[in-house]
Design brief:
- The chain is mainly alpha-helical.
- It contains 7 helices and 4 strands.
- The strands form 2 sheets. Strands 1-4 form a two-stranded antiparallel sheet. It has a two-stranded antiparallel ribbon with strand order 2-3.
- 26% of the residues are buried.
Length: 212
Amino acid sequence: MKLKIDKLYEFILLFIIAAFLGDIIEMVFCRITDGVWMSRSSVVWGDFSIVWGLGAAGLTLFMQKYSRRSPAFIFIAGTMLGGIYEYACSVFTELVFGAVFWDYSHIPLNFNGRINFLFCLFWGAAAVIWIKLLYPVILKIFEKLPARAGKILAWIFALFMLADIVISSMALLRCSQRSHGIAPQNALQAAIDDSFGDERMKKIYPNAIMVD
């Protein structure tokens, strides 16, 4: 049996699986807590959370050698790593896209509104579930998946996701520019405005707040 995930195409597939599952989990969480269905996707095409995808891939890369450690150890490590990771994601998206996608200022024990203690604990719980329950299942799936088929599937997903991220980034940048009254400077930006206007972007990113 495989002992760890160590091939690039397997990490790509892992990223896609986690990105999709993470988006669905957040949608269900919003439904339960707020009573509404809302998009939690990071991209404009499909239901994929880049934060969850990269988080799961990174957690697997750094924590798989500790998969036999106690749940308490994984919980504490996941809580700390998850908090640092979420804070970094918040800073990155604000600096690059001029947008704040979550704000925890109203929740007790928050740090600059970017993370809060309760949600850090959620990261810890997610780490335990991922490493102790889901990770072994994924190992078995990858063990049975033919390498050639896995590589082809992974690179198809990778090309799609790359295009999705590029278009999403352009759409977010134009959304930020429009919020500051900046008109499109070329035909590409005009096309982005036509395809991803403010109304559509609000549906995709309902919690996003454009900032200076």
